[in-house]
Amino acid sequence: MQTKLKHYIQDNLHSHIQVLPEKSKPSFWVEKEQVYDFERVKLHLNDRHFMMTDYDLCLPNAHNLYDLEPNFVIYNPIKMNHQAFWMLSVPVHCQNVNSRAYRYLRAIESGYDLKYGCDQDFQRHIHRNPLYFKSDVDWRHGRSHTLKELSEVIDLNSVITEREISDREEAEGRNKTLFDEVRRWAYKQIKTLSKHDYEAFTAQLITRANRLNTFNVPLPASEIKTISRSISRFCIERLDDQEAFSKKQAIRGSIGGKKSKGGGRTKIDKSLLEEIIKLKNVHNYSNRKIAIELKISRNTVNKYAN
Questions:
Q1: Cα–Cα distance measured from residue 287 to residue 120, given in angstroms and rounded to the nearest whole number
Q2: Is residue 162 part of a domain?
Q3: From the CB of residue 243, how many other CB atoms can be counted at a distance below 10 Å?
Q4: Coil, helix or strand at residue 299
């Protein structure tokens, strides 16, 4: 199985691969021959070759947790968790998040998360590297799996229904959160813009929005473009009156300060911040689990974590 994976990397990946040397730090690209030197990587570009789960307990013989045995399991005894991987018989294109095959794969992964108690916030973007020289990997077998085979051990209909309900409930909140994050950055750039910068500036905003689109159910690409173009158009239209725009933003800030009685910004609860940092960095909790543990909203956790 290890040899098969090495051949897959050699044959399917481009000359460079995305790696994450340290969790919560920026990722970057290296030559794929260096893949063995990094603990966390992204082993897929346009196509997903594996279904993945992340489990927050380092169970002995973790492969027995699942009804369908994974191809390999990567243990992390320090963080006390594991990740399991199932090789797909037909790679799934993952750049179009709305494609039928990719939605099918994500629904199956959501089903595994629910059934086996795995981390529902695991984005399957960067993951542990089975070829890292320090990885504790249990190689089980080299068989590949169809999506139908993987779906047979879960109640897929109820999973899809739950996801659709969740999408409707969270769509408005995700849209607003992303819009606010991008516009705050964009407003700071107005003084450096010219009226000829619209397309280039829009492209910058789209890139930034995609980086922030890390929700459990990501916004579709069309929504990202709409949000970015709206913010870009707003900024370009304000170029003729930058001074008035700055004053308007200052007034908005002071109003927010009066409402919060904090002089312009919402007052930070230091004890709450310490609890969130402890749960996130020491216990490796996801934002969702922190919100449940402290009985606060996930948006509050996101703001404090950022």
A1: 11
A2: no
A3: 7
A4: helix
Residue where a domain terminates, one of 107, 124, 154: 154
Counted domains in the chain: 3
Taking only the tens of pLDDT, the chain with its 306 residues reads 778 777 777 776 677 888 888 776 788 888 888 888 888 998 888 889 999 999 987 678 899 999 999 999 999 877 788 999 999 999 998 877 778 889 899 999 999 998 999 988 888 888 999 988 888 999 999 899 999 999 999 988 766 555 554 554 455 677 888 888 898 888 888 777 777 788 888 989 998 898 888 777 778 888 888 889 889 888 887 775 655 555 655 665 555 555 444 444 456 777 788 788 878 777 778 887 888 778 787 778 888 877
Exposure class string for 208-220: b at 16+ Cβ within 10 A, else e:
bbbeebebbbbbe
Say if residue 67 is in the same domain as residue 183.
Answer: no
CATH code, domain with 238? 1.10.340.50
Residues 182 and 304 in one domain: no
Instruction: Name the residue range of residue 303's domain.
Output: 268-306
Work out the burial of residue 274: count CB atoms within 10 Å of its CB; fewer than 13 is exposed, 13-18 middle, 19 or more buried: exposed
The verdict on 219 and 296 lying in the same domain is no
Q: Is residue 163 part of a domain?
A: no
| pTM across the whole model | 0.53
Residues 231, 124, single domain; the answer is no
